[in-house]
Amino acid sequence: xxxxxxxxxxxxxxxxxxxxxxxxxxxxxxxxxxxxxxxxxxxxxxxxxxxxxxxxxxxxxxxxxxxxxxxxxxxxxxxxxxxxxxxxxxxxxxxxxxxxxxxxxxxxxxxxxxxxxxxxxxxxxxxxxxxxxxxxxxxxxxxxxxxxxxxxxxxxxxxxxxxxxxxxxxxxxxxxxxxxxxxxxxxxxxxxxxxxxxxxxxxxxxxxxxxxxxxxxxxxxxxxxxxxxxxxxxxxxxxxxxxxxxxxxxxxxxxxxxxxxxxxxxxxxxxxxxxxxxxxxxxxxxxxxxxxxxxxxxxxxxxxxxxxxxxxxxxxxxxxxxxxxxxxxxxxxxxxxxxxxxxxxxxxxxxxxxxxxxxxxxxxxxxxxxxxxxxxxxxxxxxxxxxxxxxxxxxxxxxxxxxxxxxxxxxxxxxxxxxxxxxxxxxxxxxxxxxxxxxxxxxxxxxxxxxxxxxxxxxxxxxxxxxxxxxxxxxxxxxxxxxxxxxxxxxxxxxxxxxxxxxxxxxxxxxxxxxxxxxxxxxxxxxxxxxxxxxxxxxxxxxxxxxxxxxxxxxxxxxxxxxxxxxxxxxxxxxxxxxxxxxxxxxxxxxxxxxxxxxxxxxxxxxxxxxxxxxxxxxxxxxxxxxxxxxxxxxxxxxxxxxxxxxxxxxxxxxxxxxxxxxxxxxxxxxxxx
Length: 674
Known about the structure:
single chain, alpha+beta, 3 domains, 7-stranded mixed β-sheet, 23 helices, 25 strands, 26% helix
């Protein structure tokens, strides 16, 4: 079977011929520029698209992209069901200039009920899964040439019809940076770190004394506080140990290190730094003495400042280790161009009257990797990299390819579905509560993987520092003192064994849960809108956190927390609606009455604004009494529970009942948690 869906697909596409013809479906695609929401049916079948590709320039281009993207099995499926496929185009992406740029998704689907059976040899069935259906989507960027897009289409990545070499991509990177520095006020501003910048102890000079064969570790303090630099965010990898600075080789690295002795990703980063016109680069394994714990803690505490103050953070997005490189020598297809058909208006009532009129050029490019694909890249799995990208003002993948559209689409495509782009600015104007936003940050953080459980808090230290400045709140082991009872309402979506607890971490903090072991940590804010409707929360009697050395980056020496326990005498709170033991294996061992209950807060969920559904929720910890042999009463967290007040109250009664519940709360004792 042919590898192509159309016999002539391998013939080079001929742009800018002046006589481009479009089928009626592609004309609708390029002329209905401002239709919103945009959703149009394209050719009625893949067979129709294949036939049209012989004379329609855009159909030919789309079919070529489909063929390149489809796997062998998908191509076979599409070939066999080419008369039954459904083809349509939808709008996608948030654009800065909607009048000039469109991001649309071209979709080819095979219906489930008509999908033909595939003839796969038995020996291949075990290794090649047969899909239930096939869905191929092409993210398409369309730019029409006009006064608003003139500067855009003149950029090398759009003006070049050839493969995009590194030099072309670097030239575009220069243009992006120039525009960003000139026009993006939020990117220039460093409201927090400009006042609290902590210079790293070392920096990589990528051309010491003009020597292009070496790099050298230097002391940035001799440069003053105004020098510019780039930083590299990368995965170390298990099998590709990066080049490191140690106590033994520090002096040697300060004298100079030959380029060929660097890990491949480092060599690529040095090359990008030089081509972008920079002299200094920060790389963690080279700029931190790896076998000096004191040096490591001091520099780890500065990482937020280091990455936020870098002009650009180079992201080794696809590299699973430092040996993989950044893919800078890869070549990428240039933009395709054709002439758009003239559009009839009040002067020209039909297309025939528009013949001979000037025709504008249209530029087409496949958009970068989709968010779904980006989530699978190594850089979006590692815990340490989370804050590096989150706090970066500008981020670019090493290939300078996935963000080919970053000048027209808000945000960097190296951060899939990330609501915290321009994090420092976002927290200034975020409309949700601090608690909700913090746990949405943690929700993304919990998806990351860690080699060592001791790295969890250090890898979040920079975000904690910035959040502390934003809220003027006190950090409590990954939570915050102001709403600590609400923060403590976390629970597991799956089972946790007692032996899974992180040694030295208190049971009441999520930091006691080992990360990277597919343990699903949830929070009450993930499933219910409660934070804005809290009518009461427990009082903190005392909290005491002590570290061996620097906060968050050194080991925890001591953590104690005491809350005032209360008895809620009114509100008709019945048995727990939700009763979650941290270790599900203990469900048969503990009965509901066997554990102590510590109420944390009472809230009115958002949906109770309906007159016929007024109820109150009381969220509590489930505690087990423990004896440490010193005569003092202490408790260990065993789980989480949510109690429900069943009676229906009218809307006018809700506030009256709330006041009644609060007035009935009686303090009983102080509970010390470990």
